[in-house]
Amino acid sequence: MNSEVESTRAGARRGSLLISRAARQGISIALGALLVAASAQFVVPIPLSPVPMTLQPLAVLVVGGLLGPAGGAAALVLYLALGILGLPVFAGGGSGIIRLLGPTGGYLLAFPVAAGLTGVLIGRGSSSVFRALLACALGMVLIHVGGVAQLALLGGDPGLAFRVGFVPFLTGDLLKVGLAAAVILAVGPRVRPLL
What we know:
Elements: H1 2-39, H2 56-84, H3 98-101, H4 105-122, H5 129-155, H6 158-165, H7 170-191
Helix pairs in contact: 1-2, 2-4, 2-5, 2-7, 4-5, 5-6, 5-7
């Protein structure tokens, strides 16, 4: 009889831990999506470019690096879903599926993949500065590959797409890569055990 009671208690504890972990993951995914949505509201128009400068890429890299590949990608899929459903989460309070079909759509669609890649490259353990910088740099490259590819498809000129969709962002995005790596290295060891 005593072993049955202990077995039931152990099962209840395991169930409680699973629920707690699932709840923590759900909350972290929602917070990651909200972080990216908030970062999209800091908009600097770029002359002669249909793509504004925002803090979104920085947030995407941080979310991927902190939440890991599955959590980071899920947060960005949630972010896109919220925007498609009409919530003003895209750059400058934009929303709707039309944003995914327009000049900024390639960047937006690359966000979940970039967050996932950054999370994979960061890994679960402690990362070195080099590893964090490399993970963030490759995530940023992926964002720009998606963005420039869609601009080239829409405009029919890959050279022009590169000039208006990548070149004006190079300096700012190098700073964002460094800042994202610093945030991941500073905050990651405190956040990852909670997830």
